Amino acid sequence: MRLNITLFVFTCFFSSLFSIRQAQAQDPRFSQFYAAPTELNPAMIGVYEGKFRIVANYRELYSSILDNNPFRTIAASFDMRQRVQQQDYFGFGFSVLRDEAGVSRFHRTKANLGASFMKQLGGSRYATYDQYLIAGAQVGFGQHGLNWQRLWFSEQFNTDGGFIDANTPSGENFDKQTTDLYLDFNAGLLWYVLFDDHLSLYAGGALHHLNSPNVSFLEDSADNLHTRWTAHAGGEIPFTRELSLLPAVAVMGQNTHFSTTVGGNFRYTNREWKEVAIRAGAWAHLSNELESGMAMDAVVATAILEMERWNFGISYDITTSLLASANNSRGAFELSFIYTQPAHWRTSVKCPNF
Description:
By secondary structure, the protein is mostly beta strands. It is 10% helix and 53% strand. The protein has one domain: monomeric porin ompg (Porin, Beta Barrel), CATH 2.40.160.40. The chain has helices at 2-24, 37-40, 63-66, 324-327, and strands at 52-61, 71-85, 88-101, 106-123, 130-145, 157-158, 163-164, 182-196, 199-208, 228-238, 243-254, 257-269, 276-288, 294-307, 310-319, 330-341. A hairpin with a 4-residue loop joins strand 10 (228-238) and strand 11 (243-254).
């Protein structure tokens, strides 16, 4: 009996601590960052070969430990592009995200309107070589929420009986279950050069939460959301007419938290009019782990199917950190979906494969 109580208390404490560390301290991330373009960098708005684009992402983390209360992140976006002169373009987009974590149902909800300007630096629609510099920005609103009633505190633990008495006052003074609605600003830059249909290079960077909005749950108190910076780069390297490699890296930092995802996907295409392609690859995720410094905490296996306008991706994070002994290396499950409406040849833009 005493052992079960101890394990129960430890599990609740671990879940609460882990939820706070992951949910409040840093923004959610996608392993398939290249398939969540507007979440990665506002300058990615309008950067695709088509008329408009619809993107959806779903990520579920640590359900093997938290059972029915895993970390869930859902995102969706729509963006389109309009030519303004010769080969320069404006991009417009809208994106939403909801992130939920742990027993307390801690959640973050945000919605952004974004725009970008694509300036051609070299090439033309008649030439293979093409180069662009893109600047993008987003403005939106966000709100955080938490269900205090789903939590218990030390004052409610009956040490004599070894149980939690929900009728006992928690001893905590919580003012509200949601933060005030806050204004949010993001901005970014992206450069790419396309040497051939399957030979490209790109690099970009972004700053999120430029205004460091207040996300405190307490009245007359400040808890500012730290600015997150992102740097990413990649490209495509062809081996044959059908086979190429898409390496990429994304580095993110927010307050004291730092993470890197690096790897690549092999891409095989049938090179026909109705092009079908498959991708498969592996990625390593590294992050700073308190006193341990930088360490690899997950290996990500990916598979992607491309069918003309559609792109379906699936990935799985295999835990490699000390947590692997608790979750049997079962990490995150992630899905991505991209639909691109083809553009008329006069308004098409040559873009890299991401």
